[in-house]
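Hey, can you fold this one?
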Amino acid sequence: MPRQTQCNRWWEACGEKSAPDALPSLEQGLLEILRLCEAGESKAAYEKLLVLHKRFPKEDLPARLEALRKR
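Sure. Predicted structure:
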């Protein structure tokens, strides 16, 4: 499945009418996950973490999240 189609489906599932022009960076995604966790939205944070893991499979996301948490 083409990447654009996957992104469009993901955005539509999130209630957005159209996909943004560019996907958020890894750090932006991790910051959003931290914000969701702090807001008590653990399910949404977990879902975003899964999406980031698919986009950045070689990154150690738990370590990156911990480093951002300490900043």
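Residues 25-71 form one domain. Let me know if you want another pass with a different chain boundary.
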